[in-house]
Amino acid sequence: MQVLPIxxxxxxxxxxxxxxVRGLDGPTQRLIDxxxxxxxxxxxxxxxxxxxxxxxxxxxxxxxxxxxxxxxNPEVVKKGGERVVEEGCLSIPGYRGEIKRSVSVTAKGYxxxxxxxxxxxxxxxxxxxxxxxxxxxxxxxxxxxxxPDKLYKIHWEQAGL
Length: 161
What we know:
Layout: H1 26-41, E1 46-48, E2 58-61, E3 69-80, E4 83-88, E5 95-101, E6 104-110, E7 116-122, H2 123-136, E8 151-153, H3 156-159
């Protein structure tokens, strides 16, 4: 497996809508493995295929202390509540911003074995599901900023590194 280069803003691939995945063949499975490796190498919580230059509807999420969740062709089917969160993105390194996200999210899609699944998440999982599925639609968290002053540069000690 290899660590893939993460596309950074203003790379146009980040603004394009990803295509549905039609099969779970070798190249798709390899991409999922490489996405997981890339996410971990970058100390991320989630990663969407467009962030590594593939316009496929695949996301991976790994919360601290939990197993990796893979969703293929994911869709948000239910949202609940609203909260203000601090959010960052591997494609916009060194910055964070305050935006509104749902308190709870239910998403459906397929796991890497092709079985239909539903993920229900609150707090950080809900935030990660919305963030990564947004990437599949060409949407970045900075699109939700109330104003430009809500985006700020972070220092390494703030990033927890």
